[in-house]
Amino acid sequence: MSITYVKASCHCGLNAFQIPLLNSTLPQAADMCHCDTCRHITGQMFVHCAMIEGPPLAVDSGTTPETHKPADLSKLTKYQASDKVIRYFCPKCSAYLLYDIRFTATPFWAVSSGAMERTEGLVKVGYHMFVGDTLDGGVADHYLHLNGKELPRYEGWEGSKQLSLGWKSDNLASLIAKGEDRLNAYCHCKAISIYLTRPKQEDAKDAAKWWLIPANEDDPNSKPRYVAGHCFCNSCRLTSGSLFVSHLIAPRANMFDAHTDLPIMLAIPKDGSTNPNRPKDLVQYPSSPGVFRESCGRCGASVFFWSKKAEGGFFPVHEGDETAVLDVHMGLIDEQAGGARSEGWVSFHEKIIHGEDAVDKATAEAVQASIKPNQVSSS
Q1: Pairwise CA distance, residues 97 & 354, whole Å
Q2: Which of 12, 143, 307, 331 could pair covalently with 44 via S-S, beta carbons 3.0-4.6 A apart?
Q3: Is residue 190 classed exposed, middle or buried when 0-12, 13-18 and 19+ CB atoms within 10 A define those classes?
Q4: Are 28 and 111 in contact (CB under 8 A)?
Q5: Helix H or strand E segment including 363
Q6: How far, in whole angstroms, is CA 12 from its chain's centroid?
Q7: Burial class of residue 224, CB neighbours in 10 A (0-12, 13-18, 19+)
Q8: How far apart are CA 366 and CA 243, in angstroms?
Q9: Kind and range of the H or E element at 160?
Q10: What distance in Å separates the CA atoms of residue 359 and residue 211, rounded to the nearest whole number?
Q11: Any residues with CB less than 8 A from the CB of 157 and at least 6 apart, and which?
Q12: pLDDT tens digit string along 221-257?
């Protein structure tokens, strides 16, 4: 049996593994899953993995069966939403790394493709599944082809009904109408549950606030929206385990804790006291100086990205320790408020972010080619 070994790790380095892949299966054409569970557990708009040949191995394991060393999973947090899948994430940087999958008679392990040090020739996106859960096509509408081949878009499992590009759930219009004033977002365990209010038109018309899109004043049904984007940078990838990460960008003033109705504040007081506006189950990870990532400590979902950097930062910073603008992970968005892309609230930028960093260059090229030209322009 011929095996290829590849390293997989998280951003903070607390967890690293040697991953054995069966050569006869390479490159694996794996599913990109859009189900509600995967989205809300990870905070990402999809989950994509490679199937491991046997269990994961220790990073210093030998590469012959007799020198294999089992991986130590004790530094991972386990989250189990059902008896079919046990998921493992890093409790420090929140990266989702491993999946113990028990759907079939023969259980198997899988590794998040975004955590792999390389993917070319090893694993690729073969098809979309559970697109029906998104209600609006989700990010499958932003990943149409790979290497000139159209990717199947299954309503549920592979082999189920295929959904055409542009498909929308029959009840989507009524859901959008119900959710015009408040956009809900939550992780799978719902320890973190937030909502966003609609940005003001006068703010959205301010060119300096490029993260807001003004309503079309000639269209009575048009409303101000938030900008979102797909980021392929190494930090986003390794703190999530995802090939790319999708954020919407919103002023903190428009963001509230659904459990308390208090405005969101994320700074941890230096004197050790408690910030009453900080959701209590958030785990903060500084991915670089002045840059913070927040995740749910229970289910591991990525929640926020924010920065205190005054120089070289993209967003304005309030005096003190709080940012004026936050990135929210799109996988948390309540699909019942108008679909996983929530286009009544969000418009995706026409350019991907840090495509040059992508571990999977073909995916970056495919997403860039698939984003509609009438999305937000960079000009």
Answers
A1: 22
A2: 331
A3: middle
A4: no
A5: helix 361-370
A6: 18
A7: middle
A8: 12
A9: none
A10: 27
A11: 129, 130
A12: 899 999 999 999 999 999 999 999 999 999 999 999 9
Largest CA distance in the chain: 71
DSSP characters over 89-150: E-TTT--EEEEEE-SSSS-EEEEEGGGBS--TTTEEEEEEE-GGGGSS-GGGGG--EETTEE
Using CA atoms, how far residue 236 sits from 168, 190, 268, 353, in Å, is 29, 22, 22, 11
Domains within the chain, CATH numbers bracketed: 3-150 (2.170.150.70), 178-370 (2.170.150.70)
* Predicted structure pTM score: 0.95
The first and second tokens of residue 152, run together, are 């199947």
Dig out the tokens for 103 from the structure. 């759907």
Q: How far apart are CA 84 and CA 115, in angstroms?
A: 22
362 membership: H or E segment, kind and range? helix 361-370
User: What is the tens place of the pLDDT at every residue in 292-351?
Assistant: 999 999 999 999 999 886 555 566 665 567 888 999 999 999 999 899 999 999 999 999
The Cα–Cα gap between 316 and 154 comes to 41
Please provide residue 223's backbone torsions phi and psi, each rounded to the nearest 5 degrees: -135, 155
For 235, the token pair is: 């930090």
Burial call 65-91: b when 16+ CB within 10 Å, e when fewer: eeebeebebeebbebeeeeebbbbbbb
* 320 three-class SS: coil
The number of residues making up the chain comes to 379
Cβ(140)–Cβ(126) below 8 Å? no
- The alpha helices in 208-306, defined as continuous H runs, are 234-238
Strand partners, 240: none
Tokens of 38: 């995967």
Matching residue, tokens 């493992």: 88
Within 10 A of 64 (CB to CB), how many other CB atoms are there? 8
Q: Is the pLDDT assigned to residue 377 strictly greater than 60?
A: no
CB 28, CB 21: distance < 8 Å: yes
